[in-house]
Amino acid sequence: MEPGTLSTFLKRGAIWGFIVVELLFFSIAGEYLSLSNKAFMDLDNMLLLFKQSAPIGIIAIGMTIIMVNGNIDLSVGATFALSAIVLLNSMTWPVFAGLGDGVIPIAWALALVTGILLGALNGLIVWKTGVDAFIVTLGSMLGYRGLVFMYNGEQPTSHLNWTLVDFAEAQFMGLHTATWFLLVVTAVIWFVMNRTVHGRNAYAIGDNRTAAINAGIRVGPHMMINFMIIGFLASLSAVVFYSESGSVNPNDGELYELWVITAVVLGGTKLTGGAGSVLSTLGGVLAIQLLRKGLGHIGADTETVNLVIGLILIAVLFLDRQLNLKGREALRI
Amino acid sequence: MSSQTPALRLEGIVKTFPGVRALDNVSFDVMPGEVHALMGENGAGKSTLMKVLGGIYQPDEGRIVVNEQPVVMTSPLQAKSKGIMFIHQELSLAEELSVAENIYLGELPKKSFGRVDWQKLYSETNEILGRLKVGFDAKTKVGDLSIANQQMVEIARALTVEAKAVIFDEPTASLTDAEKVVLFDVIGDLKTHGVGIIYISHRMEEIFRITDRISVLRDGQYRGTLETPETDEEEVTQLMIGRKLDLSRNVSHHELGDVALEVRGLECGKLFHNVSFSVCRGEVVGFYGLVGAGRTEIAETLFGLRDPTAGQILLDGQETTIHSPADAIEKGISLVPEDRKGQGLVLGMNCRDNMTLPQVNDLKAGPFVAEGAEIAIFDQYRDRLDIRTPGWKQLVGNLSGGNQQKIVIGKWLSMHPNILIVDEPTRGIDVGSKSEIHNLIRELASQGYAVIVISSEMPEVLHVSDRIIAMFNGEIIRTFTSDEVTEDNLIQAISGIIPEKVA
Amino acid sequence: MRPFNLSGIGGFLAKQGILVAFALFIIGFTIANERFLAPDNIMGVVRSSAILGVMALGVTFVVISGNLDLSVGSMMSFATIVVLDLHDQIGPALAIPSMYAMVLCLGAFIGFLVGYLKLNSLIVTLGMLSAIHGLTLTYSGGKNMDIADKEGTWFSMFGQSDALGIPIPILLFALVASVLGIVLAKTPFGRKVYAVGGNGTAATFSGIQRARVVFTCYLMSAFCVATAGLIQASRSLGSQNTVGQGLELEVLAAVILGGASLLGGSGTIFKTVIGVLILGFIQNGLLLVGLQFYVQYVVTWIIIILAVWLDVAAKRGKLWSPIA
Which regions span the lipid bilayer (chain C) (predicted)? Predict the structure, then answer.
């Protein structure tokens, strides 16, 4: 066997294996520890799990393409909040007063355009100034959050539209609306990354940027498109979530960037870019959500979830390193 | 060769950088169906010329003419669209992607909605791979290929378009002999299709085997073009270095001291095995062999950077284990590493701090670094090694290659080692600095240092060594004294041909 | 492409841009509101910057050594909660050293993972951000922590008292900054931090024990975080579990604003202090001219991008990125 094959194999399948282990563990442990009589692998429970994974999941799918491209986006939480405000607030604008429920698509569109514009701004700055995406989006994480506060001060922005709530709570073929959004987004981005020239070029740029530039790939526009995609997905996530909840606090979405990155890394995306898969990211998102629910199910404090996820992230990194060790003859740098 | 208009012509190219005239009025041309070698020492301007051709630099004067049409090239892509293809020395491949995607990087065939036309991509790639007679197919991941096969992928790129001129930059550096044959076939194939080829290499035997003409650059200036069948190595060399090649042996024998370092049956995994040798004080031992023969790895093992899997290391007759570079330094071993910029220097630090880095712990005034002592050390070695720098505050990244190398050597001399290992001490350094460094190595030996020189340049090992150890494939093939070594038996030894045992 | 003139105003701006920006802000705010430069206002700004500032000092070491530390925010929450809890259990005299010991253990763990096991610092500290947050919540049971007798404890001195007319948090900040500034600039260890961050391989080839240097940097970061937690706890004498949440990125912003490169090998303590003060003065100045606190977020965003942009522009000699 070629060196690295085992590691590659494990990397590809690891996240799903991990999910299976989680399911088994929580089902069995649940028999002894759970306070409720319901089985962990109850259908409704699993459906709910998918639904609850959606807000983080939709953004994580976008983060995968950003990180494969060799960038990172720390501003997704703020973009999420700002889009949510636009969504809810625009429905109350007097201009649209006579439209009735016809305002819904307009509000959606406005929210999504907000996300795309914020993403495009990030992408443009990364492209034109050459400043590292980490720093650019660290800055805009603060800046966009500032815009969130400027919109409505420290007050929550609320507007409940019952048609929207009904839509968001609907179940089609057993799956919730949010779940459908997550699945469709996953499918579309999978297609973009694996079947389109843009996606393949994004991989090439993340893998070997100099080579991509020499081959005439226009790095800047590709990066900007990807930032627009993640901006769009961050606001889509907001649209899905806030259609149901109807109220947004200016602090909403804080630390989302860290959860999202955790899910993407758990899914095996390379930090330096060039490798990663949307499906594994979906696995990463589900694994985290499963852990949250599972720990609750067996009666552990919900507080321990953070502890466990953090340690698992480090353990994954450690395992990955152990699998890639070259043995004693390697250079000790 | 029917048409007599050149495929590619350069006219009076001038390119200056602040303080340097990197290219000075360079002109030459490549005919269709010709293999034209471009030679010159490191720093002669070859790579600058190639960057001008590739649109990475704009020439200050002169013009580039393709098929009698003057062209201005501002990017590698534009060069490609004009039919000028590069095969880079440094691999420029995306390892996570497939062979096909790499070959058509930047030009994936499209279907509707921006989709990749995989069928077309794979069939076209497989056709090209068929011409190259390689043992992998379009869907293989590049990261899974050997370096040589990756080089073949790089070469396959040149076959994707109707190239007018293809530039090969040291294409054989990492190829085996069998793979070289395939490469030369490919070049022959391109030739018969009327493609002009520029072939950059240092390897004389290849140059004489496949090229039609040879153009030589020296110090950024065009030195002339020779017809390959009518010239010989000596003439080319003379043109390159402006004088005859110095193949003189080291003769200055002096008294050798005690054995400083002895190695018995040293082994490190697959990298090298059964390596035994000794070095005395006052002696220079040269390690000669091809890239990958295991020489650098031995040095790294002696310096505590690798764990030996078997064997013993004896310093002054005492068996010892070297755990880390810090440990090696403690025991009086210094290593001037192969990769100056990657391993030798912190480019963003100033000259003084780089030079005193290994002993910064010992240069203390109370809890602080004794900067006065540091400057004194720097001044001493600047004078001794004739390092040309405006002052110790200069960042090392701003110095020339030769001066950078002297900083690294100075750094290790100031540690007063018993054993000094220098790995490729003159790589990428101009001729003048080269001989200075050679003299320095001899001088160090005469002062009683035990010196190991690892080099891929035969004149260098011949010139500085008292004894030469020839390595092949991780093994010592033979040890020569400077009296018995000849170019022929040395070349045989590093090719793995074991000489008949002479009684 | 237009060359970027390094010798002219642009070059000066690029090299000293951060000081120029600082000066412009001070002048602008002084004109807008004369109270801005009043001694008590300046004192107030520095005092409120002290917590962020102390943390930024430690992170400066980590960043110069070529790594990141995203765990300082949740580690600060941990320190605050622990010292407040122990205060009532074993008394402040024992609580403080116990808290330092626990936080240093966390720092040592991170240092071990990043230094000795050579794991990616971004992910390790991201994981630790989450893990330490969980640890804090588990420790406190999710409840806020308050000192029972807020009036009768000398523990409040670290956050609330003055010495020689200067608030103790400022003195602590100045003390830690001076010591670490000297360590970084003048000692062999400081030199090694720059070498490891500038070129880790070359540092190893020079006999520097890279793992040990990185490990020590994380210990120093943890020490600074513990000090910040001490000030925070002493100032408020009660705390939520999330008191440090989000600080990790603000701290990083201050360090970057000071001109440290995320690639490692460059930056100084002095510049980090300037970065911290800029953030503090922007916030204060904007409040003084009647703007809300969140306006500073937007201003900080613009300043960070401009500062780093000018820096990279000066290095490449071109204002705009050459990326096609």
Answer: 12-32, 44-64, 99-117, 123-142, 163-185, 213-231, 251-282, 294-314
Nearest CA in chain C to A310: C127
Report chain C residues whose CB lies below 8 A from the CB of A125. 305
> How far, in Å, CA of B352 to CA of B395, rounded?
9
Determine the Cα angle at A218 with ends A217 and A221, to 5°. 140
Contact A329 B101 (CB under 8 A): no
In this structure, which CATH number among 1.10.238.10, 3.40.50.261, 3.20.20.70, 3.40.50.300 belongs to the domain B8-241? Answer: 3.40.50.300
**Domain annotation covers residue C75:** yes
CA–CA separation, B155 vs B169, rounded Å?
11
Interface probe for A, chosen from C110, C297, C310, C318 (most Cβ of A below 10 Å), is C297
Give buried/exposed letters for A126-161 (b at 16+ CB in 10 A, else e): bbebbbbbbbbbbbbbbbbbbbbbbbbeeeebebeb
Q: Name the residue in chain B with its Cα closest to that of A3.
A: B144
Rounded CA-CA distance A210/B95 in Å is 13
Contact status, residue B438 vs residue B463, Cβ threshold 8 Å: yes
Domain CATH code at residue C173: 1.10.3470
Cβ–Cβ gap A213/C253 under 8 Å: no
User: What DSSP letter does each residue of B322-356 carry, written as one string?
Assistant: --SHHHHHHTTEEEE-S-IIIII--TTSBHHHHHT
* pTM summary value: 0.85
Would you tell me how many other CB atoms lie within 10 Å of the CB of residue C73?
A: 27
Protein fold of B246-332+418-498: Rossmann fold (3.40.50)
Residue C286 resides in a domain: yes
Please state whether beta strands B221-227 and B259-268 pair in parallel, antiparallel, or not at all (unpaired). Answer: unpaired
* Interface predicted TM-score of the whole assembly (ipTM), two decimals: 0.83
Q: Is residue C200 part of a domain?
A: yes
Structure tokens at B5: 């208009």
Q: Is residue C135 part of a domain?
A: yes
CA B245 vs. chain centroid, Å, equals 19
**What DSSP assignment string belongs to C168-181?**
HHHHHHHHHHHHHH
- The nearest CA of chain C is from the CA of A173 a distance in Å of 36
B99 is written with which tokens? Answer: 């062979």
Residue A15: C-alpha distances to residues A21, A67, A306, C132 (Å): 10, 18, 18, 24
E strand or H helix at B5: none
Q: Do C134 and A262 touch (CB under 8 A)?
A: no
Q: Which domain holds residue C284?
A: 13-28+39-146+154-316
Give which of A307, A318, A325 to mutate to test C binding, by max C Cβ within 10 Å: A307
- What are C267-303's pLDDT values in tens digits? 999 989 989 998 888 888 888 888 888 888 888 888 8
Compute the distance between CA of residue C67 and CA of residue C116 in angstroms, rounded to an integer: 13
Task: Please report, in tens digits, the pLDDT of each residue of chain A (333 residues total).
Answer: 344 444 555 566 778 888 888 888 888 887 777 666 677 777 888 888 888 899 999 999 999 999 999 999 999 999 999 999 999 988 888 887 777 778 888 999 999 999 999 999 999 999 999 898 988 998 899 899 999 998 888 888 888 888 888 888 888 887 888 999 999 999 999 999 999 999 999 999 999 988 888 888 889 999 999 999 999 999 999 999 988 888 888 888 887 888 898 899 888 888 888 888 899 999 999 998 888 888 887 777 777 888 888 888 888 888 877 776 666 567 776
CB atoms within 10 A of CB C235: 20
**Tokens representing residue B388 in the block:** 């040309």
Do C126 and A258 contact (CB within 8 A), yes or no? Answer: yes
Of A196, A201, A211, the CB nearest to B115: A196
| Paired tokens of A112 | 């999504």
Q: DSSP assignment, residue A98?
A: G
The fold adopted by the segment(s) A43-323 is ABC transporter involved in vitamin B12 uptake, BtuC (1.10.3470)
